[in-house]
Input
Amino acid sequence: MTRDGVDGVAGETGVAGAAGETRGGQTKAAILRAARERFAAQGYERTTIRGVAADAGIDPSMVMRYFGSKERLFDAALAVDLRLPDLAGVAEGELAQVLVRHFVERWEGDPADDALLVLLRSAVTNEAAAARMREVFAGQVAPGLAAALGAERGARVAGLVSTHLLGLALTRYLLRLPPMTALSPEAVVASLTPALEATLRSTP
Output
């Protein structure tokens, strides 16, 4: 075989490999999205591998190939990064609005595909989900507040701040209570910010 022939075969193999990796990535992303939607709608206990596979348009064996079990699929689908802004440079008087706006903008995008909302729904009936939720807020919200307010005060207010934010998630995006869904995103920010500000002021 000529050198050109060798290079041609290698090039074709490389292209095929890259295409396979792309298809694999697309399949995995489709599985994760379908899983988040299923977990959001049905919770952990009622969600099945077969149901996730059907939503993703693939065979159930493909789900098992990528994730191995429902528990591992749940862990992968609910890897939560709150993507909090750097709160260290935020003035205390602006902190409540920054937090409320961040979560409203996050959840207004696509609530069904938001891992935190899926986790909140599942946490009611699944201890593993509840433990993950505690880890998320202990590992991300509390340190963010500590950067803005100092370690001791941040620790004191973290639970109360979480109460406001999770209450918003529950009433507007999960239960979809009409008085909450009727509000525009800006109205939610304007209405909830003073309540969170009051909480921060009352916790020295």
